[in-house]
Amino acid sequence: METWFDARGWRPRRHQLDMLAAARAGEHALLVAATGAGKTLAGFLPTLAELIESPTEGLHTLYVSPLKALAVDIQRNLVTPVDEMGVDIRVETRTGDTPSDRKARQRARPPQILLTTPESLSLLLSYPDSLTMFAGLRAIVIDEVHAFATGKRGDLLSLCMARLQAIAPGMRRVALSATVADADGYRAWLAPDGDIDTVTLVTGEPGADPDIAILLPEDRVPWAGHSGRYAAAQVMAEIETHRTSIVFCNTRSLAELIFQDLWKANAMQLPIGIHHGSLEKEARRKVEGAMAAGKLRALVATASLDLGVDWGDVDCVIQMGAPKGSSRLLQRIGRSNHRLDEVSEAILVPGNRFEYLEARAALDAVEAGELDADVFRMGALDVLAQHLVACACAAPFDQAAMLDEVRSALPYSALTGELFEQVLGFIRDGGYALKAYDRFKRLTQDADGKWRVSHPRFVAQHRLNAGIIVEATMLKVRFRNGRALGKVEEGFAATLSHGDTFFFAGMSLEVEKIDTEDLIVRATSRPARIPTYGGSRMPLSTNLADRVRGFLATPSEWHRFPDDVREWLEIQQRRSTLPRPEQLLVETFPREGRHYMVAYSFEGWNAHQSLGMLVTKRMETQGLKPLGFVANDYAIACYGLEPVRDPASLFSADILEHEFVEWVERSHLLKRAFREVAVIGGLVERQVPGKRKTGRQVTFSTDLIYDVLREYEPGHVLLQAAWADARARMTDVGRLAGLLDRAADTMVHVDLPRVSPLAVPVLVLIGREKVATGSADDALLVEAEALAREAMAPD
Fold this sequence. Notes:
Organism: Sphingomonas corticis
Number of strands: 28
Helix content: 40-55%
Family: Belongs to the Lhr helicase family. Lhr-Core subfamily.
Number of helices: 29
Mean pLDDT: 84
GO molecular function, one term: ligase activity
Keywords: ATP-binding, DNA damage, DNA repair, DNA-binding, Helicase, Hydrolase, Isomerase, Ligase, Nucleotide-binding
Strand order of the largest sheet: 3-4-2-5-6-1-7
Protein name: Ligase-associated DNA damage response DEXH box helicase
């Protein structure tokens, strides 16, 4: 190895040697190092050293990574050094794309190093020969651990590590990341039994400080929009002056629009491409190959390129719209140069005035080395059910020993014996309401107390259907006569109830019925209460939200802002007020025959969407005749026919006990969450031999079971899991609860004669089914300017 480093004129970096020392001492290790610092090589150096010093057959090291990262870069980071050192070490991948004959051979004669994903590892553990395959395992290396640990894939991986540790007690655990704010949280997640003292923290050498600029428009920072599309010509000019640029967008639909805008502005006909998760695999691979070969001058991309890309020729990263978090921004900046000692250049293109403040906050956070905190949560019960079936497929297990093993995984460390019993009972017979059906009786307890699979068909069923990622479906919006208007994301449709109105395809529509694949509507003259948005939305991180709040309350900082942004804040301060960081500002004012209430809560779009549904329902109860609401990351605006005199009563914490529960149960949110946990928990199979069920067939099955359980077994373990998902992931209820808990003591209510400057960016969204897309852009800007003139006029 020393010869290999010397031949390249390289020296092992300190953190790479520290990782080697930790391995020699038999310690688990978490490496936190900047992008371009050679993390992957650092994770594998101990493996290479051990296999060179003591060559062995059999599986030595597992490398687990997000699939997108796996596909791109392992060849150069690992296989090439192995080949160039001339050592006999086999390195292979195992994913869903691996041919079945190779998978079978890997179990019989595994390579020394196997690169895989959490899902494929879980499947491997479902085979009886896994007990011998992993018996000599020395290490597991988890790359990009921040992409796993706090979600359901992290729950699955944590359980898999507990199983592997039971099979191979001497296995070392290693995790790698560039963007970890809470190192101790990740050390606890990585450690057996959550014992952080067993995990050595290795930090990388600091890299060169990034060079980040905020691109300002030639005219003024826009009032509305969130895409930065106004700057297409300026962005193209940046692309022309750099070797290779990556242009990051926050949603796939925006990536498509930005690509079209850049193409129109591409007077030099430079080669540019596009890359996102909805493209076919072949198209993505073709673009990745063109980038690696230096054939593209720019690539428009989404989060599909956040992880694992190492194209050294990229010398500029451009972020369209606000980054939503400092960790995400750092991850994306790291794609530029991807070398520790070279400056990464990045340009932020804010979409509106609030986004300018957010971009400035992100830049300050990166300079201060401040990352976004990750929220660790209890492990999901549907994931646990899937894992227990996998273990039973491999061999019968003892209940008490398995409970101890499961509890050694941090997400499940507080699992009670009673809840574990419930999960086992669900796998045994489906639960009280379903026990009459043989197809739910997957596990049986023998006379000796061990749990085994009831029938071989359940083993095949598990291997066909295991997995954590459940594809989102689209619902067709149509009239009762069959005429289709288009499709909306199921996530949006799930928030609707009978009688709700929303704006789509240029008209106001009322919900008549929600079927498994159809949203049946009728045209209505009633105003659309609920807005719709295209694409998934990344929430504003609490870290950046706090910094933006700080800007509003600190006029001494405003000299750093463009003149028009500074003027916006100064007039807001004169005409209304600007909240202190701990305050919730609520403004009320009349406009054009309607009464508006705007709350500046800074809790992110997802939480605000949920809050809008709840507050408008409470307004209705109070006789305020609400017409609708709109929301962005920074504020929520509700409007109706009666003035809001007492906003505090609309934001009381008991809204989560009453309206929230009623809304989640009446809408399809809980049903949607149940479908996902039923699939992951193995209650409903997506695939049968030779055929994959349609989304409609899966939904039909889960809807039937959901209705039965709601009526006859409301405490069923999967309904508990569905509620946990509905609260945490679909409604961001954690941030919502924090906001409502603070509201009573921190609310500042200002009643105004007309719209305020701060309200313009959110109010201009009213009546728009999509924000900053297509021809809506120009109309949005015209309307924003008219509203702004009214708001900015002196009293």
